[in-house]
Amino acid sequence: MALPIRFVLVDTSHPGNIGAVARAMKNMGLDELVLVKPKEFPHPEATARASGADDVLARARVVETLAEGIAGCGLVYATTAREREQYLRVVGAREGGERMVAECRAGAGAVAVLFGTERFGLSNEHLLSAHAVLRIPANPEYESLNVAMAAQLIAYEIRMAALADAPPMAPVRETPLATSEDIERFYVHLEQVMTDANFRDRTQSGTNLMGRIRRMFQRAELDANEVNILRGILTAVQNQRRRAGQG
Fold it and tell me: In whole angstroms, what is the distance from residue 247 CA to residue 155 CA?
């Protein structure tokens, strides 16, 4: 049985790359492929490049938003070779593969790996949905990899972790990581309370605060109970403000 590890391709331009990723996944025992707004799919070139992984292509889901693509997932990794001033935690591909396998074996739910467009990769906005960045230790003078090549290398590390005699242990936690939907609802709730309390973004551009807050909580890898606690605090603040207003 394939591990519940989902490869999510965002805004893929070339259908051949979709087929090549499907082939890479099947080579390494993965079968859950999600496509976020692909330029062309289905397409004969995707089928040709899949080269026998037609079943993976046939099961691929096409969605309109990244939120749909990672729905139901706990741990989310992003792939990027570009340096970002995003203060995101960076994890090596090998360590990331071990962590993903450990999460799946612990029954912690589905895991997602995000891959961006061929020209620009993932946007900074896309990265806000990830807990960490997966980094392939390529030549620092030329780190850019074709999306299918990156998918093959990461799928290989997942496969090696799955075949290890002593499988890595998942972090010990009482409850699984919060799903992407629960995390997003928390961010919406938090932003609402911040607005009500007139806590505004005072950075020069006026657009950085929520991004920084999201990155802070994504690094923390909140579980479902922790999200419920935080939302309970926010609700208590809202109730207190309502009572004060009535008074």
Answer: 59
Return the closest-CA partner of residue 35 out of 101, 43, 98.
Answer: 43
Nearest to 151 by CA among 56, 242, 37, 247: 56
Question: How far are the Cα atoms of 199, 229, 233, 243 from residue 238, in angstroms, in the given order?
Answer: 14, 14, 9, 9
Q: Would you identify the CATH topology of the domain 5-163? A: Alpha/beta knot (3.40.1280)
Q: Where are the alpha helices (DSSP H) in the chain?
A: 15-27, 44-50, 54-59, 66-69, 93-105, 124-127, 147-163, 180-196, 209-220, 224-246
Question: What's the CATH number of domain 180-246, 2.60.40.1080, 1.10.260.40, 3.30.70.420, 1.10.8.590?
Answer: 1.10.8.590
Give the model confidence (pLDDT) of 110-147 as tens digits: 999 999 999 889 999 999 999 999 999 999 899 889 99
Per the CB < 8 A criterion, the answer to whether 27 and 160 are in contact is no
Q: What distance lies between CA 233 and its chain's CA centroid? A: 27
Q: What span, in angstroms and rounded, lies between the C-alpha atoms of 92 and 212?
A: 23
